[in-house]
Amino acid sequence: MTTYIYETISQNDGEAVKHYEIKQSMADRALERHPETGEPIRRVILGGYGVLKSRATTEGLSSPCGCGPDGRCG
What is the value of pTM for the model shown? Predict the structure, then answer.
C-alpha cells in the first residue's frame, strides 16, 4: 500500500485547506471525496526520487552524486 497526500478543495473563499495521508493501492483511482467526511479532495502530486545518469558519470568523470571524481563537491 502506498501513502498518498490529499488536500481538501475549498468551497468558499478563505476556507483553510486540510491535508490528509491516505493509504491506497497504486492501482486504485485517485479519490474525489474523503472516505469518512465526504469532503471534496484531490491528490497532491509531490516530487519523487529518481536516478539521473549522465555520460560524465558513466565515464568516471564525476562521482555518482555529481561531484568530482574524488567525491568532493565545490
Answer: 0.59
